[in-house]
Amino acid sequence: MQLMRIFDSVLDPLEHAGDSAAMLGTLETHLDLGCDVQRTAASLHLHRTTVYYRLGRIAGVLGADLRDGLTRSHLHLALKARRISRQLIGHRISLSVETSGFSPGEETRHSAAYRTHARCLADRAVPCDAWRRS
């Protein structure tokens, strides 16, 4: 868990910036494709100047030099850890529903609150009050 906090702290400035989904998606795609702007633009169906603009915004928000290999490695690792942790949260949710003994249409207030809370954790841009409602 400590490691996830470190990774989250790397990406927190982007999470709280406007249009965070587009910036995080652009950054992850760009890093996945070996920092090739042309391939990033084609993959995201964007013009390459849009990709350059987003990368400039990302660098400004993070206060990082995206040309630095170590910085790119840290960001790529943080993005992949974030994706894996979200997949694990989703997997735990589906397991809890499957093993709860309820039929798919049947739901308790607690299980609904748990799923809502897990979605809030997965999407940190949304403040979570699911537990207070149940």
TrEMBL record:
Protein origin, superkingdom: Bacteria
UniProt-listed InterPro entries: CdaR-like_regulators, PucR_C-HTH_dom, PucR_C-HTH_sf
Biological source species: Nonomuraea deserti
Pfam families: HTH_30 (PF13556)
Domain PucR C-terminal helix-turn-helix: 24-81
Protein name: PucR family transcriptional regulator
